[in-house]
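Appendix B, record 7
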Amino acid sequence: MTPPPLVLASASPRRQRLLERLGYRFAVRPAQIDETPQPQEPAAPYAARLAVEKAAAVARPGEVVLAADTVVTCGGALLGKPEDDADARRMLGELAGRWHEVLTAIAVHAADLRLEHVERTRVRFAPMKPAEIDWYVATGEARDKAGAYAIQGLGMLFVDAIDGNYSNVVGLPVPATYRLLRAAGYDLLAAPAIGAGGSAA
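Structure tokens (predicted):
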């Protein structure tokens, strides 16, 4: 049985690449929502709220919608996407030599079904010299990344250890995503095969 159409409510190229590598066929329909945290809102509920709002914003009858939101916390502080290079340097300075936590919330909407999951992964950064921080920020990779780094890119140079799911740090916890989509009626095993690295619809 052919699965229903799958829609990714995200413009993130990292999430798109993860789904493509697994062979998912999907359309991209980025959600436009207000991502401002509420006063005193904890990280996990904040990420979960955004994922749910993103899914709801683009949902249409007959489709399975997948949405996600990733946040980073360090020492109790929420680190979102840096506002500019100076903010990226500040964030990396806070992460250097310390453990931090990456949380990705995923939400799946299909017909009357609403599924949610929050994945947590702990990451430890090596100590970073100011020159290393300046160099990394100058590469441009820190922009538009929660916590100001990309573990799948040059950011891996400074990751000492990881406790938990790697793909979660990239932006989409693959095992949890597979389980939720299957529960919502999109079974990857029943979908037409497009092969690893196939293109999205």
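Remarks on this record: Confidence is low (pLDDT under 50) at residues 195-201. Residues 43-58 form the longest helix (16 residues).
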